Amino acid sequence: MNTFQTISTAYLRASRTIETVLVSKESLSTVFFIYNYEGNSFRVFENHLGLLNFFQNKGESDFHFSSEIEVDAFLSDVKLVA
Question: What is the total count of domains within the chain?
């Protein structure tokens, strides 16, 4: 099981945030960016460029969830690569 911790949170509006999350397991780690839209939609990005493209309407998120529980389950089990 992976461990994860929030590195930073940027508030776009009171109910819209972008979290930078470090996911680790043993000697492997990866950073994910999570856009929380009013607690009803969570878009997860594997890199900063994907996040920027999403906001410029040039792309989709890598993963989409409808609850924090689903996001936490994903981060706990996502495969980390070297």
Answer: 1
